[in-house]
Prior knowledge:
The chain is mainly α. The protein has one helix at 13-17. The termini are far apart. The mean pLDDT is 74. Residues 1-21 are annotated as: Disordered.
Amino acid sequence: PIPTVNPTPTPTPEETASPGP
């Protein structure tokens, strides 16, 4: 069977720490 790929991967701690606009 084909493994389902997660379209939205969990953001890395570094990305989460980055302040958004």
